[in-house]
Amino acid sequence: MRKQPKYLQIAEYIKERISTGEWPVGSIIPSQRELAKQFGVNRSTSTAAIEELMAEGLLEGAVGRGTAVVNNTWTLMNSRPHPNWNENVEWGIHQASLETVRKINESESDSGLIQLSKGELSPDMFPLGRMRQIMNLVSAEMKPFGYEEPRGNKRLRQAVSSYLEKRGLKVSPSSILIVSGSLQALHLISIGLLQKGTKVYLEDPSYLNSLSVFQSAGMKLKGLPMDEEGIIPASIPSGPEGKSVLYCNPTFHNPTGALSGVNRRRNIVKECSYRRIPIIEDDVYRDLWLEESPPAPMKAEDSAGNILYTGSLSKTLTPGLRIGWLAGPEPVIERLADLKMQSDYGSSSLSQQIAARWLEDGSYDQHLHYVREELRIRREAAAAELEKQMKEYAVWTLPRGGFFIWIQLRPEYQRRNLFEKALSKGILLNPGSIYSPKPDWHIRLSYAFASIEEIKEGIAVLASILKEGK
């Protein structure tokens, strides 16, 4: 039997996705470029397939959006309108990600790109051998397991309590909630503790601006000015009691890498206490110091239960475990534990047991020593290449920890399409515009994920783009 031409194979694939309801009427199908890549053909072949389906009345060009499904076999036979879930896409209460953020999230799985955007460790730093050993130990002790306690596995909460005490923060296991990463902690806080209309003060720029977790709960973000030590305490305004909260990331801030010193932390806590503003302290990068360990968490200065503190293993060990924690007053933890049970009935029992082992037996601290050494090497390689390739085009400050170098473009090299241009040349980076509501001419460059060779190549390509645009 003669094999179908490639363009007809692509057309049949699209028809099948439409006929099964996976791509209902109104869906935007993958671009011609994406289809060509998926089927390993020239773009002209995927174009021919789309034109074929347009002629059949199934697809239609959507100005500024791509190609949309406008009919399926049912609607071609029946003129009566029919319901589908596409109509509900815009009705949900949770806001969609920014378009650039969605594109970044989709592109981070593309192994063909040089990933200068990713906020996670390189697979080269994954402790595969030790992870296998710990999983074998957990397996050998395994009993039938079901749902954990609402606050999380007791053994893990005790391990987290001991871990935090070594870092200057005394928190009992009953005041700790195990969460599926710190982002879930923020979500639980937004729906469980804050009123609609609450003003969330935060650094400008801030990672939180690239999310919609608080905005979707009816809250407004208000950026506060920063210097090299983070939020300037005097900029924290007074607000209606119960209608404002401060979110901050004082240790190797995302995206700028800023580190708040001891006095700065105390002044922020003092200012918020005076103004009766509770604090959410996001401390996920704490263990990634590259020169000296950072000051104790701001939570260590909290004697009134004014600070909620989040941490995670996602940045230091692996995001795949989906293990983080939230520390706070017991009544707050009890409330949020109830909400977590309503949403997912607890984080993975297996992941919690594995995480407890890592924290208990010294494996985690040994792993951190290795990770810091690797990150130092990568940071220095990135710094050397930036100095070689980029000093004409930008300025930056090397961070003392974390994953990121915050690069500010000089005025004559500021380009609105830099993200798209870099992506077209195989480089994925994070533009500063996703971290601030104001016009921003920064780049967040990660040295944690890509190899040293890729970091050098990516910076060289970035420099060539800036040179071309002068």
What does the model show?
- With 470 residues, the chain is of the alpha/beta class.
- It is 38% helix and 14% strand.
- The chain has a seven-stranded mixed β-sheet with strand order 4-12-11-10-9-5-6, sandwiched between helices.
- Strand 13 (394-397) and strand 14 (404-409) form a beta hairpin.
- The radius of gyration is 25 Å and the shape is globular.
- The chain starts with 5 loop residues before the first helix and ends with a helix.
- The model has no long low-confidence stretch (mean pLDDT 91).
Q: Percentage of helical residues?
A: 25-40%
Number of strands: 17
Total count of helical runs of at least 4 residues: 14
Give the percentage of residues in beta strands: 5-15%
Q: Mean of residue pLDDT?
A: 91
Low-confidence stretches: none
Q: Sketch the major β-sheet.
A: 7 strands, mixed
Rg over CA atoms: 25 Å
User: In one word, what is the shape?
Assistant: globular
Class per helix and strand makeup: alpha/beta
N/C terminus separation: 57 Å
Briefly say what this structure is.
The chain is built from 14 helices and 17 strands.
Please outline the helices and strands:
Elements: H1 6-19, H2 32-39, H3 43-55, E1 59-62, E2 66-69, H4 73-77, H5 99-107, E3 114-115, H6 128-140, H7 154-166, E4 176-179, H8 182-192, E5 199-203, E6 220-224, E7 226-227, E8 230-231, E9 244-248, H9 262-274, E10 279-282, E11 307-312, E12 324-327, H10 330-344, H11 349-360, H12 363-389, E13 394-397, E14 404-409, H13 418-424, E15 427-428, E16 430-431, E17 442-446, H14 452-468
Parallel strand pairs: 3-15, 5-6, 5-9, 9-10, 10-11
Antiparallel strand pairs: 1-2, 4-12, 7-8, 11-12, 13-14, 14-17, 16-17
